[in-house]
Write a structure and sequence with these properties.
The chain is of the alpha/beta class. It has helices spanning 13-25, 36-48, 68-78, 94-97, 99-102, 114-124, and strands at residues 5-9, 29-33, 55-59, 84-88, 106-109. It has a single domain (5-119), classed as Rossmann fold, CATH 3.40.50. The chain has a 5-stranded parallel β-sheet, sandwiched between helices. β1, α1 and β2 (29-33) form a beta-alpha-beta unit. α2 (36-48) packs parallel to α3 (68-78).
């Protein structure tokens, strides 16, 4: 089967780089989207090419683009079984405190350690 494929949706390049490195270290394959629209496009294309993503880590707040709360709805329209994880530094946001109501399978609060990432991915996958 190979490595699990994880799609990262975040508008900050430093987060993209660090998260990609963490996922690589944990044995996952990753791809990066800068906003929700691109993430949905990449997710759909990967499914069409029979190389689907196993999970998507979505930043809640994307400056100047579609954030996680809006993007997860579009993602679930493409794939009702999608495993989306919300990622945010805003611990009191309703999409974080009630992530399941938005369609997310889990939450990971920024900043997080590699152990936190490993734990949430094992839970979701």
């Amino acid at each position: 089967m190979g490595k699990a494929r994880i799609l990262i949706m975040d508008d900050e390049e430093i987060i993209q780089d660090v998260l990609s490195s963490m996922l690589d270290f944990l044995g996952y394959e990753s791809a990066v989207a800068p906003d929700g629209a691109r993430a949905i496009e990449m997710y759909r294309k990967a499914r069409e090419e029979s190389k689907p993503f196993d999970a998507v880590i979505m930043d809640l707040t994307i400056h100047g683009g579609m954030g996680g709360a809006e993007a997860v709805k579009a993602l679930l329209a493409v794939d009702p079984q999608a495993k989306a994880i919300v990622s945010s530094g805003y611990s009191t946001d309703p999409a974080v405190t009630g992530y399941w109501d938005y369609g997310f399978k889990a939450v990971i609060s920024k900043p997080f350690k590699i152990e936190d990432l490993k734990e949430v991915l094992e839970k979701v996958l």
